[in-house]
Amino acid sequence: MAINLYYYASPATFYQLSGKLIPWFGWSAAILTLIGLYISFFVAPTDFQQGEAYRIIFIHVPAAWMSMFIYLVMAFWGAIGLAFKTRLSFMMSRALAPTGALFTFVALWTGALWGKPMWGAWWVWDARLTSELILLFLYIGIMALWAAIDDPQRGDRAGALLTLVGAINVPIIYFSVKWWNTLHQGASIKPSGTSMHEAMLAGMLIMAFAAWFYTIAVALYRVRTLIIERERNSEWVKALTGK
Amino acid sequence: MLAARRRGDWLTSQFFFVMVASMFPLGIGPDPNTLRMIGPGVVWVSALLASLLSLPRLLAEDFRDGSLEQMLLTPQPAVLLALGKSLAHWLIYGVPLLLISPILGIQFSLPAEAIAILMLSLLIGTPILSLLGSVGAALTLGLRGSGVLLTLLILPLYVPVLIFGAGAVDAIMAGTSAESHLSLLGAILVSTLLVAPWIAAAALKVSIE
Amino acid sequence: MLAARRRGDWLTSQFFFVMVASMFPLGIGPDPNTLRMIGPGVVWVSALLASLLSLPRLLAEDFRDGSLEQMLLTPQPAVLLALGKSLAHWLIYGVPLLLISPILGIQFSLPAEAIAILMLSLLIGTPILSLLGSVGAALTLGLRGSGVLLTLLILPLYVPVLIFGAGAVDAIMAGTSAESHLSLLGAILVSTLLVAPWIAAAALKVSIE
Amino acid sequence: MSESVATLSVHDLRCTRGDRELFSDMNFTLHGGEALLIQGGNGQGKTSLLRLLTGLAQPAYGEVRWRGEKLARTSETYHREMAYIGHLNGIKDDLTPIENLRLAAQLAGRTLDEAQAEEKLCQLGLGRCLDLPCRVLSFGQRRRVALSNLLCSNAPLWILDEPLTGLDVHGVALLENLLKSHVDQGGMAVLTTHQPLSLEGANIHALRVGGPAQ
Amino acid sequence: MSESVATLSVHDLRCTRGDRELFSDMNFTLHGGEALLIQGGNGQGKTSLLRLLTGLAQPAYGEVRWRGEKLARTSETYHREMAYIGHLNGIKDDLTPIENLRLAAQLAGRTLDEAQAEEKLCQLGLGRCLDLPCRVLSFGQRRRVALSNLLCSNAPLWILDEPLTGLDVHGVALLENLLKSHVDQGGMAVLTTHQPLSLEGANIHALRVGGPAQ
Ligand code: HEM
Ligand SMILES: Nc1ncnc2c1ncn2[C@@H]1O[C@H](COP(=O)(O)OP(=O)(O)OP(=O)(O)O)[C@@H](O)[C@H]1O
Ligand SMILES: Nc1ncnc2c1ncn2[C@@H]1O[C@H](COP(=O)(O)OP(=O)(O)OP(=O)(O)O)[C@@H](O)[C@H]1O
Ligand SMILES: [Mg+2]
Ligand SMILES: [Mg+2]
Questions:
Q1: What value, to the nearest 5°, has the Cα angle with vertex B200 and ends B195 and B205?
Q2: Which of A10, A133, D26, E176 could join D13 via S-S bond, C-beta 3.0 to 4.6 A?
Q3: Which residue did the predictor score with more confidence, B99 or A188?
Q4: Where do the structural domains in chain B lie, given as residue ranges?
Q5: In chain A, where are the structural domains located?
Q6: Which of B38, B56, B149 minimises the CB distance to C28?
Q7: 0.90 exceeded by the pTM?
Q8: Residue numbers of chain E with a pLDDT score lower than 50
Q9: Which of C16, C24, C159 is closest, CB to CB, to B151?
């Protein structure tokens, strides 16, 4: 391979690289959010069944997607870290967790807000809702475990192991609507096509991309902080902060 | 590894279940219909909590007095150690629970077949709790506030077991078949049996360092 | 004595309660009417169990690392030490439970006034649990299988608290007044406050020898 | 016996553990400015004796007196004037050395500010570990944290059970100096150790517990 | 490197704890019939080094080899041929010394009958406490129980972290003899201690970890 992967896996290079990338992702996230919100509230038509309340979907669905996706990415980085002992991948995993928890919380919150008009209750014990709640607990548990272990290397590995164990929950969330007959709506975006109005779809996708870019920007920012913290005794950080 | 167990522990954990499960009628009121309805759920939740209550002791003592180190330094692979620990936990916690569950069933005036299914679901489900529990116990070894942390980490993983376990009994009481629930439980058991000891062994090594 | 507490512990114990209480709907089924009926009982039973779960840690660690010895050798009387330990237990276990109980109430779709009474009953009841618990923890210090033994000793003492505590909420939900239950609880609180620390202090001295 | 003279005295003391009698008919009196070194092989009852002296354990027969009064009657005063360090260090793993010292002082009803605690710890060579939780400290460093409690208390009577375990040569020398100056200033000490201890010049007595080494 | 020669070797070893580097660039090779005494003050990294040697901890850099192979690859053989006793005794408080010994043997895949266990324990002077739970034993007696495990294993490599703590003079002499005969018979030992150890005649090397005492 032409590119030296180890070169980019070194915290020092990654630090420089990510510093350049953050503004790009940050601004894209902000702009996409504005466009997405505009479409959601002014362009997309009123739903014939659900009225205006359905507009929560534009936040709810991207948040729910991200909550699951971020978890998978965390598990991926954790597994890489355990297998190849790369410090950076553990840091990526750590950097993603708070954002993941945030999106999970947002998905739960907006879902609950939406549930009140739709189902007449803030909360029902349906399989998808329950498994999403478990996801939140997993995020919190992992972060609590990290917080409880003083030694960073040990914490990295323990957290990665837990992340891997919890990863089975994600397919459960995703397929819960199929496996159990539940109150919650099934997937309307499938590989085979969609049943949605175009503007609705566009709004949702744009919001989803905004969430993506936001996640990347925030995660990179956190990784940079982590790198500085962990490598504070190394030559290059001293050179960086000493000047 | 199991030579170290004493008989006294057994009896006490049996009493424990009876008492925990007896608290519910006290807290909820004596109406038999309500009791019957919530019975399976309550027994299962007690099983989960009892498992949680006994987990911190599983490894913490060995860790503190240094025998865990010594065990990791035996020629046996750490996976076997983790598996043995789960088995030990199941023997002192799961088996007594299983033996006592018919009595709990009667306390909640469950019909006979529901009790049979309850026992069956516990028989399949409690080993899962022990296996997952050993992962949690290994991860939180020697940490500050490890008891609560353990709960936080492990309860989410316990939830599916609870749902299918209690679901099986509910199904039989609603007149449908419990088979699908039980076979799902069985599948979970097989997969945790294959995966959990490895992860627990890895976690042990991390924690001991 | 309390300087040693960290903020992280608090948050985790709050999550702990939410999780334990969320298990019941999962085990029992989502029907709001059933849930409403059993809600107060379940919250109270969880409070009892959570108290039990956190008790072994209360003194065991101090005992193991020798700080309990040192505390008994301070000029302060042992009764104050016992009282301080109960207070510490209540702060890390009772107060978070109290703060989180409204959320549990909503989960079980209890009406607002029932939630208020639930909180009031917990406010009076949980200190009793901590006080009694410290007696049990002191008695079982350093014994084999002390966790389960502790449960055996303490649960029977907890039962009256459970009955009046859950009874108060049930009464309000049945439309009658909760006052008599609450004043009984209050009476229990005062009497344990007067008696329990002395017994715990004596037990501590015996256990440390 | 006058109240005001600080003496620790032991009268006809007998100690039994389980069904074994460790020692009996023990009598001695310790005055200010004296140290008592308890000698004896493993399991002969040194630790058991020290715990009787602290009041943590009750004798099977006989009594221990402080300033002429039975321990049980004067326990508050006694605990104010006595410092005990046993085989267990009595320090909290989750706290840093500074926090540990301040916690101990607070429990004893004294106040100790951070600078003072830091000073005592540095005196014991722990300058580099002030901010680490005690969990990660080495065996000898943990022992030093426990010993630094002695520096903070101004108790006239020290009861030390094998204070030298885990200490390196510098640590031993440090402790010897501490002991010597404590005794020279009129303090008392009761201690055990299996290592040679050089307290030349100090007024030191020896007491052997148990029979011949088993 | 030949498989059959029992050597323990260390290559460019570096050990960091937290953000502190304890030592680096450590190299040595230990052959049969040699003992290595690790020296250094409190907190200099002796225990950390021994734990690296056992494989319980992973080095930050460099590697430890047994019979020329990296530890991670040969852990089963290595654990069969190595016995470690750390600061913690690794004995169960609820069991009697005999039960403890037999449990340890069983875990290691050996068998040890009661008479054998009793013999080893008597050899270490524990004849009077065979049937007491270890919880009630004295500090030194507990240490002796841990050390008696050494007698039962026939491991060629002993790794001992301050084995002398808590032992009385007889105990120290006993252990010195044990060590000497182990090394003379071609065994290896890596050990630390802060007490003087007289192993005259044995082939003993010394290694100092860490810089000057802090
Ligand atoms: C707290 C309650 C809720 C939670 C935890 C929750 C969770 C989720 C999750 C995890 C997804 C993504 C799964 C997927 O893409 O297949 C999702 C999607 C969705 N949710 Fe919810 N939800 C909640 C409440 C609601 C409510 C009340 C409604 C409306 C009646 C709703 C409507 C939808 C819709 C339409 C989707 C998109 C499905 C798709 O097109 O793929 N959700 N929700
Ligand atoms: N229940 C019991 N039955 C019989 N003997 C007991 C019992 N409890 C303790 N012992 C014995 O009492 C003695 C206690 O000794 P102690 O701890 O005072 O010894 P020590 O002189 O401090 O020894 P070390 O130098 O090892 O610290 C031990 O020999 C122990 O075996
Ligand atoms: N997380 C950490 N951050 C900084 N320093 C640490 C950390 N963990 C351990 N240390 C230091 O590493 C050293 C570990 O030393 P180790 O236990 O190997 O010492 P030792 O030579 O065995 O000492 P002793 O003679 O007291 O047993 C201690 O000085 C300790 O303070
Ligand atoms: Mg002793
Ligand atoms: Mg050491």
A1: 135
A2: D26
A3: B99
A4: 7-208
A5: 31-241
A6: B38
A7: no
A8: 1-2, 213-214
A9: C16
pLDDT of residue A87: 81
pLDDT, tens digit (0-9, with 9 covering 90-100), for A4-52: 555 566 777 778 888 888 888 888 888 888 888 887 777 766 666 666 6
Residues flanking ligand 1, CB < 6 Å? A 57, 60-61, 64-65, 107-108, 111-112, 114-115, 118-119, 128-129, 132, 173-174, 184-185, 187-189
For B162-171, write each residue's pLDDT tens digit: 888 888 888 8
Residues of E in contact with A233 (CB under 8 A): 19
| Residues E167-204 pLDDT 10s | 999 999 999 999 999 999 989 999 999 988 887 777 88
- What residues contact E2, with CB distance under 8 A and at least 6 apart? E68
The answer to whether the CB of D144 is under 6 A from ligand 2 is no
Helices (H), ranges, A120-197: 127-148, 152-166, 169-179
Rounded to a whole number, what is the distance in Å from the CA of C24 to chain A's nearest CA? 11
Q: Is B55 near chain C, with CB under 8 Å?
A: no
What is the residue-wise DSSP string for D105-151?
HHHTT----HHHHHHHHHHTT-GGGTTS-GGGS-HHHHHHHHHHHHH
Domains of chain E: 2-90+155-208 (3.40.50.300)
Interchain contact, D139 vs E166, CB within 8 Å: no
Which tokens sit at D20? 């074994």
As given in the structure block, the two tokens for residue A143 are 């972060």
pLDDT tens-place string over residues A88-142: 889 889 999 999 999 999 999 998 888 877 777 777 767 788 888 889 989 988 9
Q: C163 and chain B: CB distance < 8 Å anywhere?
A: yes
User: What CATH fold (topology level) applies to the domain A31-241?
Assistant: Four Helix Bundle (Hemerythrin (Met), subunit A) (1.20.120)
Measured from the CA of A118, which atom of ligand 1 is nearest? 30
Interface ipTM above 0.95: no
Q: Please spell the DSSP secondary structure of chain C, one letter per residue.
A: --TT--HHHHHHHHHHHHHHHHHHHHHH---HHHHHHHHHHHHHHHHHHHHHHHHHHHHHHHHHTTHHHHHHTSSS-HHHHHHHHHHHHIIIIIHHHHHHHHHHHHHTT--HHHHHHHHHHHHHHHHHHHHHHHHHHHHTTT-TTHHHHHHHHHHHHHHHHHHHHHHHHHHHHTTS--HHHHHHHHHHHHHHHHHHHHHHHHHHHHHH-
Nearest 5°: CA angle at E99, between E98 and E101?
A: 65
Rounding to the nearest 10 degrees, give the CA dihedral for residues A62, A67, A68, A74: 130
d(C-alpha E100, C-alpha E148), whole Å: 10
Mean pLDDT score, C51-69? 82
In ligand 3, the atom with minimum distance to the C-alpha of E48 is 18
Helix (H, G, I), strand (E, B) or coil at D170: helix
